[in-house]
Amino acid sequence: MGKPLFSVIIPTYNGSQRIGYCLRSIFKQKYPQDNFEVIVVDDCSTEDISASVMKVLSEFPDEGFNVKVIRLPQNGRQGKARNVGFAKAIGKYLINIDDDDALNGDDIFEKIEKVLKDSSVDVLLLDSYNVVNGKCNNELKFKDNDAKVYNGKEFMEKQSVSWTAWHYVISKEFLEKSNIKFCENVLYEDVDFCLDIVSHASTISYRPIPIILYTIREGQTSKIGLSERRVDDLFKLTERLNMLAQSFADSRKENIRNHYIFQMNVIVSRNLWRLKRDEIVRLLNSHRPDNLEFSKLTNFAFKNPKVYSIVAQISRPVLLSMIRIMKRLRK
Predict the structure, then answer these.
(1) How many C-beta neighbours within 10 Å does residue 56 have?
(2) Rounded distance, CA 283 to CA 139, Å?
(3) CA atoms within a 13 Å half-sphere pointing along the CA-CB vector of 70
(4) How many CB atoms lie within 10 A of CB 186?
(5) Where are the beta strands (DSSP E) in 172-223?
(6) What is the end-to-end Cα distance of the chain in Å, rounded?
(7) Which H helix or E strand runs over 12?
(8) What percent of the chain has pLDDT over 70?
(9) For residue 307, what are the contacts with CB-CB under 8 A and spacing of at least 6?
(10) Cα distance between residue 126 and residue 166, in whole Å
(11) pLDDT tens, 181-192?
(12) Is 203 a residue whose pLDDT tops 90?
């Protein structure tokens, strides 16, 4: 038996009630079973993930799926889980999917293989549909019909870069040669990873094929929260993006700085003021905006952390009331 074309990586933490939905969408593919493998990486769950996987497999008793369940001894968040899955994968191409999402139809692997036969690339950007409260909106994220093959620099000049890893099919050989990995034990690890693979790709292309049904639910780590840890990780992400930008001497540097670091700065500014006074001061004292371009408000906060924290505390009730009113008006 030769190596499979695809390795599907599923990181999970306490996802025993969710992962069945994901696995069934994979096992129902009308595609040769020996041409793909599934790697479930259990990020030190407090639940029995293996039992949940075996239960789903029992629904397909006559099938010979290649499924591995790897349990991590310590929780390292999705970045660690995905890195371990990548290292254990033997497929030519890597596909990421979250444990509560699903493949959109039973011919997804077939569609991806057809594209790759026409255009063998390092990175293939595909699309998705959002599923909210069980309803699919059938709306593509990118909608660009340009199927040309570009290098990373050219691609970034014409196309938006998705921040989510499951939008990409990635050549394992390219990933290993580039030595690109997820940052571990942090939130928002997808953002710099995705920019890293796109910006370094020798060949990359996009197809408006919605391969993923993305479930939007409360409590996702990708949803901006109000904890000190999350805002701290946003600062760290901005610093990682700046390091990536500084590694280039062409348009990729300015592209990352002007678009993606700018967006991170906006998100930081929107969330920093919501924290408690002592949390704000700690964060501002532990991060320094060296070589980074933050907003005027955030720059003021860096220079005057105590003053900023007091102003934020005083204005917070009014601002939160305004936000609640605006949300009601939009409904």
Answers:
(1) 18
(2) 38
(3) 20
(4) 20
(5) 204-216
(6) 55
(7) strand 6-12
(8) 93
(9) none
(10) 9
(11) 999 999 899 999
(12) yes
